[in-house]
Specification:
Blueprint (H helix, E strand, L loop, with lengths): L1 E5 L4 H12 L3 E6 L2 H14 L8 E4 L8 H12 L4 E4 L7 H5 L2 H28 L3 E6 L12 H21 L4 E8 L19 H14 L3 E4 L2 H11 L2 H6 L3
Parallel strand pairs: 1-2, 1-4, 2-3, 4-5, 5-6, 6-7
Helix pairs in contact: 1-2, 1-7, 5-6
Length: 247
């Protein structure tokens, strides 16, 4: 595949980028820090035994929609044809942090919902114009239901998940494959300092699950897999129970 990857410098995005290049897929990286993205590109070239500068990169900031079209144009020019666009970028903070910082709350909501949706709109139009392809976007299990520890973050992810499901319904017949990834707790810099549950995931293992979901064209992928059952149970709990628990 010829893949555009937004968010390859950290955590799950970085693990997924390394796996894609090791599996001989062609990559073009996007990110909000041009220097970090370029370093990741060089790292991927070494890991994939690729020639220098064979992995392209461009500036693309989910907080700045004006960067979307130039970044996607650069990716198309470098790759020739884009088969898949993968979006792993986003912001995270705990509920307590967000409640005490309205300015960052506004930024997080904009990046995780508005900015991501606008980028996906630009990406899906280009994929459809090229005959179709895959749009894989990282949402979160936090969006499955209103929960005390992730009220604000979860609200943004809930909106994103609904948007992606709607894209699948409307454009699947036109050749667009939408894969919504819903990670649970994964041990990355995003979750550093938070207590990890027994079923916490590893970025490299999660990357393999995500790539499998893309290859199999799964509409929704819970990663690690136990989160599918966990969230099924959470969705069934009565509101009275949800008010009492802190999960």
């Amino acid at each position: 595949m010829k893949v555009v990857l937004l968010g390859a410098t950290k955590g799950m995005g970085r693990a997924l980028g390394r796996l894609l290049i090791e599996r001989k897929h062609d990559l073009f990286l996007l990110g909000r820090d041009a220097a970090d993205v370029a370093r990741s590109a060089r790292d991927f070239e070494v890991r994939g035994s690729r020639p220098l500068n064979s992995v392209g990169s461009a500036l693309c900031d989910l907080a700045q929609p004006e960067t979307f079209s130039p970044a996607l144009e650069a990716a198309e020019k470098a790759l020739g044809k884009v088969d898949a666009v993968i979006v792993t970028g986003g912001l995270f903070a705990t509920q307590d942090e967000l409640e005490s910082d309205p300015a960052f709350t506004a930024q997080l909501l904009h990046v995780n919902f508005t900015g991501t949706v606008l980028f996906c709109e630009a990406a899906r139009k280009r994929l459809l114009a090229g005959g179709g392809g895959t749009l894989c976007v990282f949402s979160s299990v936090a969006g499955e239901r209103g929960r005390k520890p992730v009220i604000i973050y979860g609200a943004a992810k809930a909106g994103l998940s609904h948007y992606l499901e709607g894209l699948d319904h409307k454009f699947s017949s036109q050749g667009l494959t939408v894969v919504t990834v819903k990670p649970g707790f994964v041990k990355t810099s995003m979750t550093a300092g938070l207590p990890a549950p027994p079923f916490a995931g590893d970025p490299d293992k999660v990357a393999k699950l995500v790539l499998t979901a893309i290859e199999k064209k799964k509409p929704v992928a819970y990663v690690p897999r136990p989160w599918s059952l966990i969230m099924f149970i959470i969705r069934l709990l009565p509101r009275a129970v949800m008010r009492k628990i802190n999960f």
